[in-house]
Amino acid sequence: MADEAHLSGIAGRYALAVFELALETKAIDAVGRDFLTLKGLLAESADLARLVRAPVFSRDDQAKGIRAVLDAVGADALTTRFLLLLCAKRRLFLLPAIIRDFNTLVEREKGEIAAQVLSAHKLNDAQIAELKRALKEKLGRDPLLNTEVDPTLLGGLVVKVGSRMIDSSLRSKLNGLRLAMRGASH
């Protein structure tokens, strides 16, 4: 049985249910791919996001719209049944939170942990490998890195793992130094 800690309410219960079904039917990878595709489509399409979130659409309209999207992307049968159930229960608005919680459960199952990495410049393969090694050593699990460039950073990295943040950016060090200097002058 998967650990239910850190899952969010109703969305967490739905995520746990679809995760356990996917585990039983060996469809974890297929459902994970479908959810990744849906997450991207929700970010790209204001119309799809509105269909998912707006309560003005009927169950039938949501089901027709979601079925069309799932058919177009060739979604797994379990993903399709699950999303149609969400439509029938008027819970489709929970989809983004369900996807997040499902991914958390998959990471735990695989012994992985997601890490958001912001850097001043694009990291090369050697830097990514070293960062993965250091995070695995510190966290005890394989990190799944999501790297982004943040031009507002002067240098260094900001790494977020769950609710923890490791900030080794030059900007935060300079701000800390500035605060320390202000304190010393009083």
From TrEMBL:
UniProt entry tagged with the keyword Nucleotide-binding: no
Entry-linked SUPFAM superfamilies: N-terminal domain of the delta subunit of the F1F0-ATP synthase (SSF47928)
Main location: membrane
Region forming the signal peptide: none
Gene3D superfamilies noted in UniProt: N-terminal domain of the delta subunit of the F1F0-ATP synthase
Coiled-coil intervals: none
Membrane topology classification: Peripheral membrane protein
InterPro entries xref list: ATP_synth_OSCP/delta_N_sf, ATPase_OSCP/dsu
Record's subcellular location: Cell membrane; Membrane
Keywords: ATP synthesis, Cell membrane, CF(1), Hydrogen ion transport, Ion transport, Membrane, Transport
Similarity comment: Belongs to the ATPase delta chain family.
Protein task: This protein is part of the stalk that links CF(0) to CF(1). It either transmits conformational changes from CF(0) to CF(1) or is implicated in proton conduction. F(1)F(0) ATP synthase produces ATP from ADP in the presence of a proton or sodium gradient. F-type ATPases consist of two structural domains, F(1) containing the extramembraneous catalytic core and F(0) containing the membrane proton channel, linked together by a central stalk and a peripheral stalk. During catalysis, ATP synthesis in the catalytic domain of F(1) is coupled via a rotary mechanism of the central stalk subunits to proton translocation.
Name of the featured protein: ATP synthase subunit delta
UniProt organism field: Rhizomicrobium electricum
Gene of this entry: atpH
